[in-house]
Amino acid sequence: MTSLRVVAHAPTAALRRAGFNAGDDHLDEGGHAAALVAFSPRNGRHPLGRPDLVLTSAASAPRQTAVAAGLVATDHAALADADAGSWRGRDLADVLASDPSGIQRWMSDPAARPPAGESLVELRDRVGDWLDGIADSDRAIVAFTHPSVVRAAVAVALDLPPAAHTRIDVGPLTVVELRAGRGGWRLNLHAA
Asked: Which of 42, 44, 113, 172 has the most CB atoms around its CB within 10 Å?
């Protein structure tokens, strides 16, 4: 059975400002400290277990989160954040002021793209293809990525409609465990 822990990167200054592609930034001091605390061994065990494979988005924040967790990760293209196109690096408030109809379309239609960017449907398809590709790997995998990718993975695993993507909240350092088995992926929730 394949188990997958999908980890949202620690906070960055851009994430705190609701910036597009906030994972491109380096972790800020608070984000780095939070990652160190979140992934400190407990009772001699790493909170993410003993993975057979550790993957990360090539962006700074997920890579630095993996390092803070004490894990050596390999970059994987499927874990990239949704491409915000010309909105990349801008804050939501700034884009809302300059392109209110574009933001409204993007927020209400999962097939809508930011100018020169990727739609949520395209992101979901990319993440779904990746999940299909690893489902039969029979490994314990940890993937450090962006909140949008974590949301897409949950939506794919639960076979939710594309519009549900925006109704899944994923905070920094959220860890979601999925397990592949007969009938597809399952969301595995743990007691504290």
From this structure: 172
> In the numeric block, which tokens belong to residue 106?
């993007």
What lies within 8 Å, CB to CB, of 15 at 6+ separation is 9, 22, 23, 25, 31, 61, 172
User: How many other CB atoms are there within 10 angstroms of residue 100's CB atom?
Assistant: 10
Under 8 Å between Cβ of 155 and 164: yes
* Residue 181 bridge partners (DSSP): 184
Which pair of structure tokens corresponds to residue 121? 């449907």
pTM of the full predicted structure?
0.95
User: What CATH code is carried by the domain that includes residue 184?
Assistant: 3.40.50.1240
CA distances from 135 to 27, 57, 79, 157, 162 (A): 31, 19, 15, 11, 21
What is the per-residue pLDDT across 57-108, written as a single tens digit (0 to 9) for each? 999 999 999 999 999 999 999 999 999 999 999 999 999 999 999 999 999 9
**Structure tokens of 34?**
């939070």
Strand order across the beta sheet in which 184-188 lies: 74-75, 53-56, 140-145, 2-8, 175-181, 184-188
Instruction: Dig out the tokens for 80 from the structure.
Output: 């990239």
The SS3 assignment for 27 reads strand
Q: Is the dihedral of CA 116, 65, 154, 167 positive or negative?
A: negative
Q: How many domains does the chain have?
A: 1
